[in-house]
Amino acid sequence: MLEEELIELAKTIQLHKSETRTIEVKSAHKDCPKRLYDTLSSFSNQDSGGTIVFGLDESKNFAAVGVYDGQNLQKKVTEQCTQMEPQVRGIFTIARFQDVSICSVEIPPLDITERPCYYKGLGKSKGSYIRVGEADMPMTEYEVYNYESYKKHRHDDERIIDRADFTFMEQELLNRYVYEMKKDRPMFAKLAKDHIYELLGITRDGKPTLAAILCFNLYPQQYFRQLGITAIVIPGYEIGDVGSRRERFLDNKRIEGTIGEMVEGAVAFCRRNMKVAVIIDPDTGLRHDKPEYPIEAIREIILNALIHRDYSPHSEGIPVQINFFADRLEVHNPGTLYGRISVEQLGIARPDLRNPTLAGMAEVLTGTENRYSGIPTIRNAMREAGLPPPVFENRRNEFVVTLYNGAGKYGKEPQKTPSELGEADVKFYLSKEDMILDFCVTPRTRREIADILQMGTIFYVTKHYINPLVAAGKLALTIPDKPKSKLQKYYTKS
Residue 404: which residues within 8 A CB-CB, separation 6 or more? Predict the structure, then answer.
């Protein structure tokens, strides 16, 4: 960054008196901080990277205390960067601020195929960090494994289940799948059955795979008790709310079986617990039932959860969870988004498949298209039903899809004005453009706008939301002569 950009960044830090997901502050007025590896790791492991600012003291309300020696500081920070694997290549800037010298080092993000970045002195399992809010947290074993499995193209749906055999396989269903795969493939159909099984991922070295167990076994949960669905109906808005008779759940069911059986069981559970509006056509007098949520959207969400969830040993003890609340339906899927795909790219970019063998089997057995149309289908179904758009969240160790029914505290008609609502409330009833305009009553950076939208890619937010609002004359720039400045902020025109 330029010197003036560093000065503006320091002013912003002092104004807000806070670090952020991409900003870490160190005093360094006596010596170089000896433990930077946690921040070097976490910034390298997130898509946006991050910046460490030296010379401000958090314990003194972020007062400018300066750095002891700018040149020596850069040398010692670089030495710590070389202790990381892969090595971190920081970009330094020094500026004069409030009569002292301050310094920054920008940490660029690593490509996903090079992550996790870790401190060599602790090793990959203990020296890898992730940024959570303004804190650097050790990565879990699962988070490290997730990067490694992607780099090595390891697919857990194809792992061998040693204690399983074909005794409990539903042979008719298995034969139907093989028949469908042979159709229109005359050369493939000539292969021996054992060879076909290997090529289709039904077996590996003659033993059934996890995908085959989940799709063809008479009772897959005999091997993995938790690879099913738990579904509950809560009499309120949050877990812990109770009904008029102090009941915690209005309905509570464990759904088991093959992938196909679990999909149908989960859809049936949702049908049973959804409110249904009865609409009489005034012209024909015919009755039309309108469910609380579109069944098509629910089916796609459950299919996606079962097919694309994480099936590694780290999460095989966690079921898919369906939670019905008074105002929403949540589906919790073990495992974060896989590979390079981000939330804002869902339904737009072609994703990497975590479980390609399972996805192929499900395409034949359940009728799922496996053509990346699931997310658009969910969005279209909610829009056609006149309901708020679905909310997709990539949390630390799970992926969550939420459907809102337009009632209760997150309904279409807000019970408070936008300025009275918190960020969590605003995002459910306003369009993203309205959310930005309300948020930017106070000037905001691109990163702050991306955070409020829960989108990690600043470039995408700038191109698809910020720039159109600027072009429409609804947003203005604090530094109009330098539109691409890193210190640029945007505010709502009155």
Answer: 327, 328, 387, 388, 391, 410, 411, 428
Q: Hey, which residues does 171 pair with through a beta bridge?
A: none
Query: Going by DSSP bridges, is the β-strand pair 203-204/207-208 parallel, antiparallel, or unpaired?
Result: antiparallel
Closest to 85 (Cα-Cα) out of 39, 117, 42, 124: 117
Q: Are 220 and 227 in contact (CB under 8 A)?
A: yes
Cα distance between residue 72 and residue 65, in whole Å: 17
Q: What is the mean pLDDT of the chain?
A: 89
438-456 pLDDT, tens digit each: 888 888 898 888 877 766 5
**Alpha-carbon span 258 to 242, nearest angstrom:** 33
User: Residue 286's pLDDT is what?
Assistant: 73
**Residue 107 in this model has a pLDDT that exceeds 60:** yes
Q: How far apart are CA 26 and CA 15, in angstroms?
A: 17
Contacts (Cβ under 8 Å, ≥6 apart) of 246? none
Residue reference for tokens 């996606």: 304
Whether 146 contacts 59, CB under 8 Å: no
pLDDT tens digits, one per residue of 357-409 = 999 999 888 866 555 678 999 999 999 998 999 999 998 889 999 999 976 54
How many Cβ atoms sit within 10 Å of the Cβ of residue 174? Answer: 18
Distance CA 105, CA 20 (A): 15
Reported as half-sphere exposure (CB side, CA atoms, 13 A), residue 418 has a value of 16
> Is residue 184 very low, low, confident or very high in pLDDT (cuts 50, 70, 90)?
confident
Q: How far is CA 214 from CA 76, 171, 260, 416, in A?
A: 53, 14, 9, 47
